[in-house]
Amino acid sequence: MRYNPKTIEPKWQKTWYDNNVFAAVDFDDKPKYYALVEFPYPSGTGMHVGHIRAYTSLEIVARKRRMEGHNVLFPIGFDAFGLPTENYAMQAKIHPRTVTDQNIETFTKQLKDVGFSFDFDRVVDTTDPDYYKWTQWIFLKLFEHGLAYRNKTDVNYCPSCKVVLSNEESQGGACDRCDSPVVQKEKDVWFLKITAYAEKLLDGLKDLETLPRIKTEQENWIGRSVGAEITFAVADTDESLRVFTTRPDTLFGATFMVIAPEHPLLEKARGKIRNKDAIDRYREQARHKSEFERTQLVKDKTGVRLDGLEAINPGTKKRIPIFVADYVMMGYGTGAIMAVPGHDQRDHDFAKTHNLDIVEVIQGGDVTEAAYTDTETGILVNSDFLNGMDVKEAIPATIDFLEKEKLGSRAINYKMKDWAFNRQRYWGEPIPIVHCDDCGMVGVNEEDLPVTLPAVERFEPAADGESPLAAIDDFVNTTCPRCGKPAKRETDTMPQWAGSSWYFLRYTDPKNAKALADYKKLTYWMNVDWYNGGMEHVTRHVIYSRFWHLFLHDIGVTPMGEPYKKRTAQGLILGPDGDKMSKSKGNVVNPMDIVERFGADTLRLYILFIGDYEQSTPWSESGVKGARRFLDKVWRLADHLTDDTPSTEVLKIVHKTINGVNADIEASKFNTAISKLMTLANDLSALEVVPKDAFENLLRLLHPFAPHITEELNERLGNRESLTFAAYPKPDPTYLVDDTITMVISVNGKVRDKIEVAKDTPRETLESLALDSEKTQKFIDGKPIKKVIVVPGKLINIVV
RNA sequence: GCCAGCAUGGCGGAACUGGUAGACGCGCUAGACUCAAAAUCUGGUGGACUUACGUCCGUGUCGGUUCGACUCCGACUGCUGGUACCA
Fold it and tell me: How far apart are CA A514 and CA A30, in angstroms?
């Protein structure tokens, strides 16, 4: 009989899913293993090959762990709030609830068609009120602990559509929907104080098992920098300017100051500024510049000098000018800098444009030409008591001086900003806050959660940038939870990151109505042993969810500090043309097509064989064929089985494969694991008859990759037990070592001969064997032998 | 600009801590089977020279360290990702 995935795949899927064989068992005695993949956004187009790649890695690990005797939690769910569904719903005039339910249904069917071993009893859906009740509950806790606050900020606003836009919808400064220019509109929005956790988030990275680059990316995102805060008095006023600098040693070279256009000094000292008009004009320009312009047009350093105000350099005691310039941002540091044109290139550019003094304080370069930024070899000059020191000595010396004079202190600054936590849209979790005229902002009582999204006909954004919820009187008008007087509900909803910041906790206890998850179950299942997802989520999603988890731990809701033990990230699958897959390029590969034409096992196998798991790789149709041929070959092997005991030679091949495949899977080297299985199948098919024992080992090793065909073949061998919980093969060390080894003989590093020798041939014998070799003789050619290097088990190199 | 990563046959990719470059797959090619084709099986397949045995060259470019470099170091080029005037 020929291999026909169309009949055997549905058969085994039915067996698995009808009997719930992948259900994780709470509090089981077996050691637990929690394998987590990033849950999908259920889009209308169904699964992408990228989803398959993202899930297949841990699918292999989960199936392998079950065979190794673990109680495995391998869950899946849906991150279903968000813009695409909402936009589609508006366009198609279907309620987002309906759209979401349909999409989830499609995804679930597709996941099962590929044979993923998820525990479908634990599916979570972030848009389910029973789920988002707890998302709201966590928000309330953050609010109670002062970690959620409201503040004014500028948002992208389209005056024509009267709608707030996301960054994505306002790229290049034009509205995505009507193409009119986007302006910045000031609005009161919610923030989460993630900066309060900056240090903890940095600390927690120490124990995370991951690629160095993943760690580096998070470190750079948090962006801790150590330096000093220095206070500059503003001459003839009571005002002062605080700056943050990483280079306090260059204090004596600060010849001017620059403040952000939004800096409060401009209001406070307004009376003293003589060129108000010019300043106002510049501030207005900066306000209208989109973030795009302000950050992309790097070349021209614009700015206006404040007439009538000067600062005093606390080192030199000299008066120095103050400028307003938009290259300084209010959002980082203190919104003001001391400019050291001699040793900072941006300041140097600015000084050149505006004809300002450039003073050299670190010797080594030519500061009239360019800023000299070498901190290793430079020596301080023109700096009073710092003269003669190197940069490393001068930094603490300056800080000591500033602290003594009460002009500044050591300071740490983070690049990471607080998390803007709001959207003015319908399809998101309502923020559970009530605005009361008397009590201010009050959290909804816990027993009144969830604050559900009202079922409405119209969910288009309301006018003037307000959420559609603002137009629904029934929703808005409520009573104050504290004083009982009439009050209004918050109408903003949460961003998409909210539901995904804690979903992995819900999987441990998905139906709990009393808590986000039972503490004992959390204790049993957490931490996540292995978390795989996209490289693009390594900064935002991973950091946000770590923040929520650390907070939940601090308030005693979860037992562990850091949620994840190990994190990996898969590479992108490109189109067959090497470009990113996209509808517009017409190079999208639909994974379900591959299932249809070649079978799910072929898809699973190929997607891991395609290349290094962490690297991006183009899709190849002919590569798929290769994966299918391999399965055909395995199928045919079953027709040549024998009960004879395998030869030592065969046992060696089998056990080396067991050893290699095991190691490769644990190291995410799925492509080489598969190539080793192919080699084993090739070797077995070269035999007259295939020992059954060797074949069964092959089936078990292959089972996590290609579960359907292996279950079928296993059944045909007469085995009653499913492979799902069959013992994973263990290598027998006696078959891993060879008695004889091939050693290379090289002359001056070039391979000239190979010899077969016993494993522990002594050095002297090897040397003489090498020197006597006919082939090497030719290259030694009577020249004097300088040295003979013997690397045990590898080679002998003769140097002449 | 800065940070990180990558660069290996016709193609996707292997090569552990420096030690036989090109595993495995695709493609191509010759042969077997077939009336024929498909499928399958067997052999070959980095390049140049050579009747052959072989020899030389070869891991983006240039240089260095080493008995020995795809692997380490320096400079450069190109590609990918992240970030954005971060003080």
Answer: 27
